[in-house]
């Protein structure tokens, strides 16, 4: 009997020694595939410390995450609107493939009437099908997530509150026709009193509780922050980090839009948003930017809380982190305060990966797409590639094994596309009109070179990257906030709403 007890003790000690030798202590549990922490920040442009010294932003936690991995300084969304952007990222398909150009219910992204999406495996589902325990909270898809995508769901607080009893500055309608345009939740000011009253704070609490647990398989954890989405409300202390006398407004020309096509002006018809001219005359421009920076600093603090919890957990050294936003945000550029455009300030977004096998503190200035998140995560986690993905993995580029030119394509409505190369942005609208900007000499896109004879060859080369299939609007997708898109969907779907492809229409 004694010999049996001693033998059991001997085996236990041997196992403990072996685990320590392999680094498999509780602090550093290794599994065959790494965990994923998937961080979405709503409406965050590139005004973060490591990328934008101009703005005076304060993002110590995003910056420290970037020091652990690779950040793309020229990443772009596939649609400058949250619904279609997130649907594209989560399905791995371009808007021009799915016809999802506007908002769409999470549950209707996958539809029997849409041949592109009816059997698509969405990003979190792919991890689930490959043995991961999936969890998510907050705004990940447009609302939260389709049913059963996550094993554990924390849901999402409705709206973008909390809200004060009355708006502080902007009524949400401007001078617009209230029946023709939607109402924006745009407003700015210090509210509420404490971080603990913010839904994002509660989301981080939910995530951090789960990071304390031990799992018998790798996990996929998604968290979708509601800020920096309007209204630009956060507690006063975050405004105090950005005194008004330190605020710099964004580059702006009053006649900047004189050389763009009429369709661009139709798309940019957003009277429910504050205009830059109004912001200048009212003195509110620096206050809007101050509020935006305050929201960034607040979200950065919450990201820091999450990173601290991860670092203190047993998952610290075996987790892939990706941080992204669904599109950029204009803070006065091109005459307004909104996303909703194919110009650089609206499409450019942060994209950051940190993983055990990636370089540390690397900044890549080649164009990248949010569409690449899906295949990149699969490769970083050692999972088989999903053949339906239209994006390509960025792992070779991050490891200096891809020297090819890179391009990013953004689509806004049917057959309106932008192609971003390292130096140029080319835009082609559904009626064939064009814009071309040389970012080396004109980073603010003030001068449209599309009709300049010296740039015909550049336009020709960039046209080759336009999507050749342009699906009509998905029946379940719409954007009633803006008249142009209401009219376009009605016009292009007048054949009965069947999902067909218009081949070569953009050429």
Automatic annotation (TrEMBL):
It comes from the Bacteria. Keywords: Calcium, Hydrolase, Metal-binding, Signal. Its cofactor is Ca(2+). Belongs to the sulfatase family. It holds the Pfam family Sulfatase. This is DUF4976 domain-containing protein. Coiled coil: none annotated. Residues 34-382 form the Sulfatase N-terminal domain. The keyword Metal-binding applies. GO terms for cellular component: cytoplasm. GO terms for molecular function: iduronate-2-sulfatase activity; metal ion binding. InterPro entries: Alkaline_phosphatase_core_sf (IPR017850), IDS (IPR035874), Sulfatase_CS (IPR024607), Sulfatase_N (IPR000917). PROSITE patterns: SULFATASE_1, SULFATASE_2.
